[in-house]
């Protein structure tokens, strides 16, 4: 095959969603409460579909099950990663995710959820909730039971270009006015700790998962240290944000022409800004803001040309 797999995303409506996915990426969104673009996904709750080449019309999950050679024969029973773009038009619930062991036991064999965020854009003065102040489980439970959220939750400022690594067990929430690219394990398990007592259109509050949250939260909070590493070569500046157990994530700032050797079983790529061309085995593919693609195992070398920013990840 020797060609990239371009993908049609799936959109998810959320109580906190907005229109930024249409306004910034020109996506055809289902409503003005669209919170998530599942851009590269093999998860059963929203699968991306291939739009080009011999596998057009196939989902990532189907390719993972039927053509594992495209992914270097990777041993995971499911496609292991999920790339999303999140439009936090309002505050997300304060939440925490389980690790693999807990999820396997309590969530029907689902993967745990370690994730990371690249801040694409945000309002002036935007912030997020990242971690908590409790030193012990008793203190954590007491602050939840007494509704002492302002004392319990750590808030930190964010700006475009920031990157955050969010291991399972981390209390977190994106806050209003942030647009984020998320790379995560392929999991849809979220435990809500607090949802600001807000109600949906029918007047109902959303379900909370206090007991499970207490069981999986890391106490005391541990900051995941991110030390970006920048390498410059002709035509591209590559920033490695994280190299961790479940994924490695990079930003490619392309300005001109650059060639690459694929040294991973497969790579996931999302164009966040600009435009250009991807060349594989003499074939040219145009790239523009909002495009998402996979470079499968049989793409051994490739070239990019243009002026664009991409977020790239691999297992």
From TrEMBL:
Every Phosphomannose isomerase type I catalytic domain range? 6-118
Task: Give residue ranges for domain Mannose-6-phosphate isomerase cupin.
Answer: 238-315
Leading EC class: isomerase
> Which superkingdom is the protein from?
Bacteria
Name the CDD domains on file.
cupin_PMI_type_I_N_bac
Supply the alphabetized keyword list.
Isomerase, Metal-binding, Zinc
Catalytic activity reported: D-mannose 6-phosphate = D-fructose 6-phosphate
Pfam annotation, one family: MPI_cupin_dom
Q: Isomerase: is it a keyword of this entry? A: yes
User: What are this entry's molecular-function GO terms?
Assistant: mannose-6-phosphate isomerase activity
Q: What is its EC number?
A: 5.3.1.8
Q: Which cofactor does it need?
A: Zn(2+)
> Family per UniProt?
Belongs to the mannose-6-phosphate isomerase type 1 family.
Q: What is this protein called?
A: Mannose-6-phosphate isomerase
Q: Which organism is it from?
A: Rossellomorea oryzaecorticis
Classification from the root reads: Bacteria, Bacillati, Bacillota, Bacilli, Bacillales
Q: State the gene name recorded for this protein.
A: manA
């Amino acid at each position: 095959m020797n060609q990239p797999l371009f993908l049609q995303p799936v959109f998810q409506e959320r109580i906190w969603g907005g229109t930024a996915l249409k306004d910034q990426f020109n996506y055809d969104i289902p409503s003005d409460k669209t919170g998530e673009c599942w851009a590269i996904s093999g998860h059963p709750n929203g699968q991306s579909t291939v739009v080009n080449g011999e596998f057009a019309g196939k989902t990532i999950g189907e390719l993972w099950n039927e053509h594992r050679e495209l992914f270097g024969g990777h041993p995971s029973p499911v496609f292991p990663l999920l790339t999303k773009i999140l439009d936090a038009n309002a505050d997300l619930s304060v939440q925490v995710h389980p690790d693999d062991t807990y999820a396997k036991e309590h969530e029907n064999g689902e993967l745990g959820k370690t994730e990371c965020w690249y801040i694409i854009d945000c309002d002036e003065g935007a912030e997020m909730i990242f971690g908590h102040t409790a030193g012990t489980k008793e203190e954590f439970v007491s602050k939840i039971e007494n509704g002492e959220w302002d004392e319990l939750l750590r808030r930190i400022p964010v700006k475009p270009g920031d990157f955050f690594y969010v291991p399972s067990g981390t209390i977190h929430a994106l806050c209003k006015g942030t647009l984020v690219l998320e790379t995560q394990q392929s999991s849809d398990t979220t435990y809500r700790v607090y949802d600001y007592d807000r109600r949906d259109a029918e007047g109902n509050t959303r379900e909370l998962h206090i007991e499970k949250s207490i069981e999986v939260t890391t106490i005391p909070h541990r900051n995941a240290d991110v030390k970006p590493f920048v390498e410059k070569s002709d035509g591209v500046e590559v920033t490695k944000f994280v190299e961790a157990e479940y994924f490695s994530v990079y930003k490619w700032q392309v300005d001109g022409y650059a060639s690459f050797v694929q040294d991973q079983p497969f790579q996931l790529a999302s164009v966040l800004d600009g435009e250009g061309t991807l060349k594989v085995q003499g074939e040219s593919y145009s790239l523009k803001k909002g495009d998402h693609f996979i470079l499968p195992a049989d793409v051994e070398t490739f070239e990019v040309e243009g002026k664009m920013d991409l977020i790239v990840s691999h297992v």
